[in-house]
Design brief:
Number of domains: 2
Strand order of the largest sheet: 3-2-1-4-5-6
Keywords: Oxidoreductase
InterPro entries: Gfo/Idh/MocA-like_OxRdtase_N (IPR000683), Gfo/Idh/MocA_Oxidoreductase (IPR052515), GFO_IDH_MocA-like_dom (IPR055170), NAD(P)-bd_dom_sf (IPR036291)
CATH superfamily of the largest domain: Dihydrodipicolinate Reductase, domain 2
Number of helices: 13
GO molecular function: scyllo-inositol dehydrogenase (NADP+) activity
Order of helices and strands: EHEHEHEHEHEHEHHHEEEEEHHHH
Protein name: Scyllo-inositol 2-dehydrogenase (NADP(+)) IolU
Helix content: 25-40%
Low-confidence stretches: 330-334
Organism: Candidatus Magnetaquiglobus chichijimensis
CATH topology of the largest domain: Dihydrodipicolinate Reductase, domain 2
Number of strands: 12
CATH class of the largest domain: Alpha Beta
Mean pLDDT: 92
Length: about 325
């Protein structure tokens, strides 16, 4: 097996998860980590036994011993780092979202597509076997048959979460750009790219400037429509996706089964009542996507989730996150 030597760009909390996953892949080594803060970068390297800690990006990108990079910084810096990696012919996997400025993202994608570098964007839901099965079922349905999908996404996120780091989440971490963009990519995978986006999105709390709540309608080609309700202000619940079509309905939650119980008493209660004790287990989709990127790097092919996929998801997520506006004819209530 061809050895693959990777470097991590960024020492955020998510980077530690990638270290664990990368170390489990055959033939993969982590050669270096880059960060802007020297002390923090050295501490990250020491904690994870990574040989090199760099604050000069060129030291990594110009290194012939680095086969590819994982871009794991805050989203506003993704395109800047990806552009530099592209100039040094480094394959890369970019954390979601692709970026925050559409013009810059589109320019980067156009430039990168002229190369043969394996470049992907993180969207692990494509590696979910249940969603892959739904995709296969949809492909067997008459493409002109009407389909209406309902997607509900709620995850509680408090002020501390949004204030963490430099506070980018409170500004740019809109619910469908940050938490929900994996589902946006999944819907695009199922139905194509929307022809129309209609949204009513807003920040639900005073410490936010980005939209953490929204109701969105996506009109896809061939009579497919998706209704989304999403927010980070409400109690957590399992993600719900139901697709209605002339032959019946596809229910993701029903396919997945009940969520795994978090406490022993809940497991015991399920067992006594004859119910499933653990719920249906899903594979580590992040590990599957990283394994696909490594295989793409070895085979010099596009990853399963391409730059074009990442750009399409970002375009939809940003359009769905615009603040709602009153029609010009509307008047304020008395």
């Amino acid at each position: 097996m061809t050895p693959v030597r990777l470097a991590i760009l960024g020492v955020s909390g998510i980077a530690s998860g990638y270290v664990k996953v990368a170390r489990a892949l055959p033939g993969v080594t982590l050669e270096a980590v880059w960060g802007r803060d020297a002390a923090r970068t050295r501490a990250f390297a020491a904690r994870h036994a990574i040989p090199r800690a760099e604050t000069e990006l060129s030291a990594i990108l110009a290194s012939p011993t680095i086969d590819g990079v994982l871009i794991l910084t805050e989203p506003a810096r993704h395109i800047e780092l990806a552009t530099l990696a592209l100039e040094h012919d480094k394959p890369m996997l970019i954390e979601k979202p692709l970026g925050m400025e559409l013009t810059a993202c589109r320019a980067f994608v156009a430039r990168a597509q002229a190369s043969d570098l394996p470049i992907g964007v993180v969207s692990p839901y494509r590696f979910n076997p249940l969603l892959a099965g739904i995709k296969a079922d949809l492909d067997r349905i008459d493409p002109e048959a009407p389909k209406i999908a309902q997607l509900t996404l709620f995850w509680p996120r408090d002020e501390a979460y949004y204030r963490h780091g430099d506070g980018w989440r409170s500004r740019d971490g809109a619910v469908l750009v940050n938490q929900g963009i994996h589902w946006i990519d999944t819907l695009n995978w199922f139905f194509g790219h929307p022809e129309r986006v209609e949204a009513c999105s807003w920040p639900s709390r005073p410490f936010l400037s980005g939209a953490d709540a929204g109701a969105v309608l996506l009109a896809y080609p061939r009579h497919a429509t998706v209704l989304i309700a999403a927010g980070t202000f409400a109690p957590e619940r399992e993600d719900q996706l139901v697709i209605h079509h002339p032959g019946g309905r596809i229910d993701y939650a029903a396919l997945r089964g009940p969520p795994a119980p978090r406490h022993f008493r809940e497991r015991l209660g399920r067992w006594l009542l004859g119910g499933p004790v653990w719920g249906r287990a899903l594979p580590d989709m992040m590990a599957l996507q990283l394994a696909d990127f490594v295989s793409a790097l070895r085979e010099r092919r596009p990853p399963a989730v391409t730059l074009a996929d990442g750009l399409s998801a970002l375009e939809v997520a940003l359009a769905a996150s615009l603040p709602s506006r009153l029609p010009e004819s509307a008047t304020a209530p008395a």
